[in-house]
């Protein structure tokens, strides 16, 4: 190791040359535009923050830098020269190391092998030199100040330890550009501090660090410049010293509320769903809330805050460790979706392809799946009964399908979602839980789904809506419950709910910063 | 570039070393991994012990040699299968590949009796490797699950074998058609140990050495452990899987030649149904069916155990029909053990990944 240059004074201007730049990059996944003219410029010796809401395109941008996705248009410049990174190995060879949001370790292999996979030190005979492997691994861990056994398998490591292994891996590349996609989400204060020490020393050594985080305190403590993204587009890049948290939040969310169907005002009725102290170790803790008849309650928060996990536990798909769920005053047995359905809860899951629909079955079969016992006579399903029920619901929901006997997989995303809704609504639920009801759906269908949810609430149904789309949350919800890292941190009534309030609570800043709207 | 080439300095050593996290888990896991192979070994010893008590002649030199000889072919196949299974794939076509290679080497020797044994072995391995490349190419390039691909080629290769046998003038190749030099391989001994078994042992050691000590060998485990992570790490997943199938095919080809040398009567049905024994040997030997873990030594012990069950049950006075039931019980026991192990680790993992709760 050569000698360390003195760390520069904080707040120094970034004068390094541009090492990596993204110029007007776009990327589409099917009909969804993940990036539309994204821009980014990383200089040597700087820590650069990339911030934006869920779905702003940060992770797609990271994957383009990592060589996982190729851009549809736009240029990637390394030292001013255009480069193509068509696979992860190419990105690595170009000196770009990435720490992903979710650790990507091989559970069966040892920690040391995970770090040096494909780059293990070799003996003369091209064999892996295990002693050298372990000692290099130890040297990295010493640098990071972690004490892990290089020979233990990665399986069973805590998320924080896995993340430290990822960091050690990135460090071992001697990368010129280190990309960290929310690396601190699972780390404790000491570990974060240690990570920052490493990031600062890399920066001082001339590397560029791209830091993606929802934690503004960390962004402001570490980074020299901040780039804000929104809806796949570049919004601004400014020196951190010129920005405040409020300004950044406003730039992240600042867009006009799209044409949304506003919720019909309903006088809420009695409490239908009572959740008390719901805890699943390591996933969410002490979650309590009520939902009244006629009310739409939104569950907001960042990806990974534990929202879907909470509703899955309420519905009984997942178990929970303590707490209780009551429906209309009666205790609900835990871990039993059948009991939840009998009590009148319906869950429209987040991933309709995986959890909501049987893609190969026909529209009518899917729509009547939840009611097959009611439609059956002597244990046999009547095709006519199925068809009649399906037709009734298809009409009520405006499902656009060629024929009801066509497989569900032939429908558009929006119409698939309507089939899932029909499937659950036909059970006549008292509590409807919808998880990301409009993800990947075109604007027109979105409005229809919103109209429908509003209609159901005004008919007296209690609706719980998990959503990552702020406009949807603000447009639809009577109350917004905000989760942050597994805990319910705020309960914002419609009158006080605005984008900044929700965003601040979701990023763990709730109550500490006053935002004028 | 100003400072890009400079290495990052090491940061100031952090205050004090944190608590040594996870070391307890490591020792537990390591113990279980060792126990995993020791367990099969113990089961094997127990079986031999019980059989010897019932019938002391079980330990006789001839009986031991027969046992090792019977286990050789299954061991070679299990070693090859391990390479494929660790990548989270499976090759069900090995029985048919063995049949094809056995028939090919028999035909070669019947038509050219002077062919040196080593050439016959290489020819058989080439036939097997070609079959393996076909399997691997469909799996890696067309991205079809290997279970389906090799189920298809199981029938296709067998069909090819039958077609070849029925269209040639020899529907069956007999010992009389084979040269003495080749036939002697089947019963040959070196220092009292059957040569076939020595070949199998060499294969196991070579494959084990490769899987443990070479980068590409470790990458095979990586692919099976987490295919998505393997891609993100820049491992050439398709190429590695293709090579794994090719090597497994070549070893099945080798097994075919050994089969020809041992049984000396060859028709198009040689090796029928062997594939499930092979997968069973690997699974009983601790090779995880979903890839990423297990060793070729375990698989070899599994092959030895399955063979020993087959020969010891009659000596214990039990109906050989019990063999299948015993093998089934062993597979279930192996799976339950693996599942328990991973569940215990998963529970260990939970509870630490949410801070402040």
Automatic annotation (TrEMBL), chain A:
Location in or out of the cell: Cell membrane
Keyword line: ATP-binding, Cell membrane, Membrane, Nucleotide-binding, Repeat, Sugar transport, Translocase, Transport
Gene3D superfamilies in alphabetical order: P-loop containing nucleotide triphosphate hydrolases
Nucleotide-binding keyword on record: yes
Residue span(s) of domain ABC transporter: 20-256, 266-510
Membrane topology, from the record: Peripheral membrane protein
InterPro entries: AAA+_ATPase, ABC_carbohydrate_import_ATPase, ABC_transporter-like_ATP-bd, ABC_transporter-like_CS, P-loop_NTPase
Annotated Gene Ontology cellular component terms: plasma membrane
Pfam families from the UniProt entry: ABC_tran (PF00005)
PROSITE patterns: ABC_TRANSPORTER_1, ABC_TRANSPORTER_2
GO molecular function: ATP binding; ATP hydrolysis activity
Entry-linked SMART domains: AAA
Matching PANTHER family: CARBOHYDRATE TRANSPORT ATP-BINDING PROTEIN MG119-RELATED (PTHR43790), D-ALLOSE IMPORT ATP-BINDING PROTEIN ALSA-RELATED (PTHR43790:SF3)
Name listed for the protein in its UniProt record: Monosaccharide ABC transporter ATP-binding protein (CUT2 family)
Species of origin: Blastococcus saxobsidens
Automatic annotation (TrEMBL), chain B:
A GO-annotated cellular component: plasma membrane
Organism, as annotated: Blastococcus saxobsidens
Quaternary structure and interacting proteins, as annotated: The complex is composed of two ATP-binding proteins (LsrA), two transmembrane proteins (LsrC and LsrD) and a solute-binding protein (LsrB).
Matching Pfam families: BPD_transp_2
Entry's transmembrane regions: 38-55, 67-86, 117-142, 191-211, 241-261, 273-291, 296-313, 325-346
Spans annotated as Disordered: 1-22
UniProt function note: Part of the ABC transporter complex LsrABCD involved in autoinducer 2 (AI-2) import. Probably responsible for the translocation of the substrate across the membrane.
Stored PANTHER family: ABC TRANSPORTER PERMEASE PROTEIN YPHD-RELATED-RELATED, AUTOINDUCER 2 IMPORT SYSTEM PERMEASE PROTEIN LSRC
Domain of life of the source: Bacteria
GO molecular-function term, one example from the UniProt record: transmembrane transporter activity
UniProt subcellular location: Cell membrane
Keyword terms, alphabetized: Cell inner membrane, Cell membrane, Membrane, Transmembrane, Transmembrane helix, Transport
Lipid bilayer topology: Multi-pass membrane protein
Protein name: Autoinducer 2 import system permease protein LsrC
